[in-house]
Specification:
single chain, 158 residues, mainly alpha, 3 helices, 56% helix
Length: 158
């Protein structure tokens, strides 16, 4: 190795001479400025850990407390039950409206049937029936047949 190579700082495998790294080439100004939560050092880097203390920049997802989880479950249950109650109320209201409409239609049909029946009865009373005509004519026919039988013109009942 030559003396110039020994005096130069050792190049890190992830950096390039232009100031950027292998994933994000370019100047240092393009890299995001990150602040370590542990040592409070500000560094322009894309690494997942602080170069000074090694603490991760991104922490794991914070879990909700037991109380918060219970609150979410209870709140969700209240919303679901409230929605189910509202749906049941709407269904009952709709069913009642349909039943009332059906009842009105039945009453209207019954009124129409009664009116048609009354018209038929009135028509029956006004025109004589075949039985009435025959029964009304029977005495006259019977009287003629007896008159004719006594005179000998027509044979009558014996």
């Amino acid at each position: 190795m030559s003396e110039t190579e020994q005096n130069q700082p050792e190049a890190q495998p992830w950096s390039d001479p232009s100031g950027g790294d292998a994933e994000h080439p370019g100047s240092q100004d393009e890299l995001p400025l990150r602040m370590c939560r542990k040592c409070s050092t500000e560094t322009r880097t894309t690494a997942p850990r602080c170069p000074m203390c090694g603490a991760p920049y991104v922490h794991g997802v914070r879990r909700l407390s037991h109380r918060a989880r219970i609150g979410i479950v209870v709140g969700s249950a209240v919303l679901v039950l409230g929605g189910a109650g509202a749906a049941a109320a709407l269904k009952i209201n709709h069913d009642n409206a349909v039943n009332a409409q059906h009842k009105r239609q039945q009453q209207s049909a019954q009124v129409k049937r009664r009116a048609a029946e009354a018209e038929r009865e009135a028509a029956q009373r006004q025109k004589p029936s075949t039985e009435r005509v025959i029964l009304g004519m029977w005495p006259a026919l019977f009287a003629r047949s007896t008159v004719g039988a006594s005179s000998g013109l027509a044979p009558g009942p014996t």
